[in-house]
Amino acid sequence: MKKIKILLLLLTVSVAGFYSCTDNDPVDNEIVTTKSISLRTTLNEIKKANNINGKNDLSMQDQAFCFNFVFPLTLSYNDGTVITVASYEGLLEILTAETETLFLVGIAFPFQVQQEGAITTIDNEEEFYALIQECGFSTINDDVLQFSCFQLVYPISVINANGSTIEVQTQGEFESLLINGEVVEIVFPISVIQANETIVVNDLYELFDLYDECDGNTTSCICTTDVNPVCVQTANGTVMYSNACLAECDGYTAADFVSCDPVLTTNFGNGLGSCFTMNYPVQIQYQGALVTVNNDGELLQYYFPNQSSIPAFVYPVTANFNSPGGLIQVTMADQVTFESFIINNCN
Questions:
Q1: What's phi and psi for 107, nearest 5 deg?
Q2: What digits encode the pLDDT tens for the residues 301-323?
Q3: How would you class 34 by CB atoms within 10 Å of its CB: exposed for 0-12, middle for 13-18, buried for 19 or more?
Q4: Which of 66, 141, 161, 281 is most enclosed, with most CB atoms within 10 A?
Q5: Dihedral of the CA atoms 5, 8, 11, 12 (nearest 10)?
Q6: What share of the chain is helix, strand, coil (3-state, %, to 5)?
Q7: What DSSP designation does 273 have?
Q8: Same domain, 122 and 147
């Protein structure tokens, strides 16, 4: 377990209540922090850049990022403790001391950042999230949409941008929610399945750690781009990989392979150009950017069957299906609808 360091010179700590000790009216000086997915995303990027994993090299500075925090910053831990961080070096020390039971979750708005020599004030979570997207940071949205190291066990609950808690039943439904860039907060705990093992994830800190482990594990797993599909049976259904190497990178072996027949008859790549055609141009979300695609060849470059059943379209999209009753043109508002049309018309 990591030991928490007492940072007497780099930060000040105030516990629940968070009142100034020098004011007769403490309510006027209450420090308010907001739980922030964007903060946790940024801290995760800083930890990866500085190799903070227990025994750390703290030599890299935040100049490597597209913005620098303007200190001091007021942050809060998951246990409610509020701290004031005086410098970037102090922030690195705090991140080094984080554990699975004590970690940063909140920040006091507004705060300032320096970007290309200009000082910008960040007033709320929406502005903070826009900043990290501009910087290309790997958000939970990106990980869920583009990575298949493990599978979420559904249903899960999320809190949407309106503050309402909604239940998400499938991966497709979750992707449809995230693909529009909406910031959602996952309600923990959740369960995931990795290499046939069910793992309970208790908070965002643990989820980021799990994704970081996946990133580390995939760096040495290099596969060819040949298409020779194999399938594995998971708790969420049959998953098809383009080839055996990709399946093995996710922890499966030949003993886990099952027949792909039910999947191949409804597979997007097989159906494109035969069961249905796309109305181009369309846009694809790829690694945080929007890519315009003009033909089938270009589209298939952004189709990763081991990650998602269909490409990460920006909806709505229109396709022409060869149905039993003749050619029909359908405009689809989300991935779930697209999947259902493939299943119902491409058998």
A1: -140, 150
A2: 888 776 677 888 888 899 998 87
A3: middle
A4: 141
A5: 110
A6: 30, 25, 45
A7: T
A8: no
